[in-house]
């Protein structure tokens, strides 16, 4: 049973990644993102997920540096993820994008670097670039985001390194069971973005009943569900109370009936874009 915020999963290359982290999508560059990241680290979070497209890497870097000093930590205590944006995909441009992310975050290496979306005709060259920076030791692990099974199978045809992580939209209305199983079979760790379904699940009566049974809130039930089905999760918030609450999921366990009831909520419903049909 996972029982601590700093518990980790061992990725397919031996790197340890925290099961729960802070997502900073839509956290504004400057004071808002700096405060959120510092708050999370102060309360025990050790994983921060950003991306070039979020336009807040500099704030994340500043916050991590300050939090390390203020909390007596070291750089290696914090797991930092970023992603290459679609407009920068391709071999040479991805190498440039990675260097830009390093500079903005003001770090010597990243813990995880992902392809943000499977841009047709480009993601294989992008992956070659990720393999290069991985071999050079500039990043501890590389992976993908928003890749469906057919994208992964296409990538495998030429890849020398199997992705360590696949970060996808995953919540009770989009329980991607086949994708989860495929990734597990290939040794790829699935990670959930938008685990709370953009807040649309918080009033669900089934989830409210399970939450009441365990003396928890709905968000905590969903995040605990992620962990119990083997999915890393990165809820986003800039509110200190919610940041603390979202991490308070290690002192209870959902039972078989709870898990079955949550799985039954699946509607194959996306609140974000479809990896097979996006135009950005």
UniProtKB/TrEMBL annotation:
Gene3D superfamilies: NADP-dependent oxidoreductase domain (3.20.20.100)
Pfam entry (one): Aldo_ket_red
CDD domains: AKR_AKR5G1-3
Annotated positions for site Lowers pKa of active site Tyr: 83
PROSITE patterns the record matches: ALDOKETO_REDUCTASE_1 (PS00798), ALDOKETO_REDUCTASE_2 (PS00062), ALDOKETO_REDUCTASE_3 (PS00063)
Record flagged with keyword Glycoprotein: no
Active site, renumbered: 54
Keywords: NADP, Oxidoreductase
Residues involved in substrate binding: 116
SUPFAM superfamilies in alphabetical order: NAD(P)-linked oxidoreductase
Family matches, as InterPro entries: AKR, AKR5G, Aldo/ket_reductase_CS, NAD(P)_OxRdtase_dom_sf, NADP_OxRdtase_dom
Protein name: Aldo/keto reductase
Annotated organism of origin: Paenibacillus anaericanus
């Amino acid at each position: 049973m996972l029982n601590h915020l700093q518990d980790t999963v061992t990725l397919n290359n031996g790197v340890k990644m925290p099961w729960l982290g802070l997502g900073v999508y839509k956290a504004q560059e400057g004071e808002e993102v700096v405060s959120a990241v510092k708050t999370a680290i102060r309360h025990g979070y050790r994983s921060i997920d950003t991306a070039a497209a979020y336009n807040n890497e500099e704030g994340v870097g500043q916050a991590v540096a300050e939090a390390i000093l203020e909390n007596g930590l070291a750089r290696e205590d914090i797991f930092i993820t970023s992603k290459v944006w679609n407009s920068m995909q391709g071999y040479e441009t991805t190498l440039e994008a990675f260097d830009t992310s390093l500079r903005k975050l003001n770090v010597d290496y990243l813990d995880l670097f992902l392809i943000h979306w499977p841009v047709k005709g480009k993601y294989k060259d992008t992956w070659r670039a990720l393999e290069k920076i991985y071999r050079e030791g500039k990043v501890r692990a590389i992976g993908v985001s928003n890749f469906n099974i057919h994208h992964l199978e296409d990538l495998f045809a030429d890849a020398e390194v199997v992705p360590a992580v696949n970060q996808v939209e995953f919540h009770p209305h989009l329980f991607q069971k086949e994708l989860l199983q495929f990734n597990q079979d290939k040794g790829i760790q699935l990670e959930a973005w938008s685990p709370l379904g953009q807040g649309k699940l918080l009033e669900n009566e089934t989830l409210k009943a399970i939450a009441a049974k365990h003396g928890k809130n709905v968000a905590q039930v969903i995040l605990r569900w992620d962990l119990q089905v083997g999915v890393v999760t990165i809820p986003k918030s800039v509110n200190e109370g919610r940041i603390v609450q979202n991490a308070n999921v290690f002192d209870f366990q959902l039972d078989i009936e709870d898990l079955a009831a949550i799985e039954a909520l699946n509607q194959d419903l996306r609140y974000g874009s479809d990896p097979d049909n996006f135009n950005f």
